[in-house]
Amino acid sequence: MTTPHTSKTYHIGDARVTRVTETHLTGLTPSFLYADWDATLLDTYPPLRSNLDGTGEHAIISIHTWVVELAGQTILIDTGIGNHKERPFSQMFHGLNTPFLQRLEAAGVRPDDVDHVLLTHLHADHVGWNTHLVDGRWLATFRNARYVLPQGEVDYFGTPASANRRIVFDDSVAPVIEAGQAVTIGLEGGDYLDGFHFHPTPGHSAGHMSISLTSRGETAIFSGDVMHSPVQVYRPTWNSVFCAEQERARESRRWLLEFAATNRAAVFTAHFPQSSAGLVQHTGDDLAWRYL
Ligand SMILES: [Zn+2]
After folding, report:
1. Which domains does the chain have, with CATH numbers?
2. Ligand 1 centroid to 270 CA: how many Å?
3. In a 10 Å sphere around its CB, with 0-12 CB exposed, 13-18 middle and 19+ buried, how is residue 39 labelled?
4. Which of 60, 100, 237, 284 has the most other CB atoms within 10 Å of its CB?
5. What is the pLDDT along the chain (292 residues), one digit of tens a residue?
6. 78 CA distance to ligand 1 centroid (A)?
7. Do 282 and 272 contact (CB within 8 A), yes or no?
8. CB of 184 closer than 8 Å to CB of 150
9. Which of 82, 34, 86 is nearest to 59 (CA)?
């Protein structure tokens, strides 16, 4: 199964939403990703096999940004891994060099056009293109943008637990704060612009937030890392190996799935393969995922 670098454009009321892909990771097995993995799930729901690579052994993990165009504004949701970043803790993220900015331009967005960068959390695969390397210094890639960070994520980087990821904050977050381009959303979440709302969905990371978008009665939600794959729609208690706080991660996933199903919201995920977007639907007592 291949996944294109840009997606079709979705319409949520007056907003246009398009994915721009940075890369795909295919090195991780489902049994590594999910401690609770049970392969018989693939027999119960055969379409889930389409989320695995050609060998049938590895999950396909997309890394991308979502571009939202609304009311003359250009908004990015999460910014991938970035180029040339030193990532001693992850071979998959270290020293990447992709034509992401060219792909963004191909989607009609030059870096200086970006007005807002909304971040679900501050992990290395969500903040990378916040900055780029200019004459040996990390500078804001989007010079005219306001970067919107969950306060709980910023706070986490003030704790000793964050020490082994400090490099991510230093090269991808601190430069936009120092440039005066950052604002934070408080722990309780809140509205942003006309139509966006930050919802606290902690667990995967300390201050993780999901971001809803409402326009002309239509709703979408950018789910960040509340889920990594459609298997978690069918098994909402399955946390990924990357989730920091187990019970809070499950609570946040249950909340998000219910929000999506109740509001018939398009879910724009951070890592699902294929189109990365879909609907969550009730089928009897269970939930199901349908790609859009
Ligand atoms: Zn992620």
Report:
1. 10-291 (3.60.15.10)
2. 6
3. exposed
4. 100
5. 445 566 789 999 999 999 999 999 998 999 999 999 999 999 999 999 999 998 889 999 999 999 999 999 999 999 999 999 999 999 999 999 999 999 999 999 999 999 999 999 999 999 999 999 999 999 999 999 999 999 999 999 999 999 999 999 999 999 999 999 999 999 999 999 999 999 999 999 999 999 999 999 999 999 999 999 999 999 999 999 999 999 999 999 999 999 999 999 999 999 999 999 999 999 888 899 999 9
6. 9
7. no
8. yes
9. 34
SS3 assignment, position 15? strand
Q: Which residue, 234, 242, 272, 270, is CA-closest to 33?
A: 242
By the CB criterion, residues less than 5 angstroms from ion ligand 1 are 125, 225
Q: How far is the CA of 80 from the centre of ligand 1 (A)?
A: 8
Ligand 1 centroid, distance to 15 Cα (angstroms): 24
51, 64, 30: which is closest to 240 by C-alpha?
30
The token duo for 197 is 């709302």
Give the Å distance between the CA of 42 and the centre of ligand 1: 23
Distance 284 CA to ligand 1 centre (A): 30
Q: How is residue 272 written in tokens? A: 């699902």
Question: Residue 72: is it exposed, middle or buried by C-beta count within 10 angstroms (0-12/13-18/19+)?
Answer: exposed
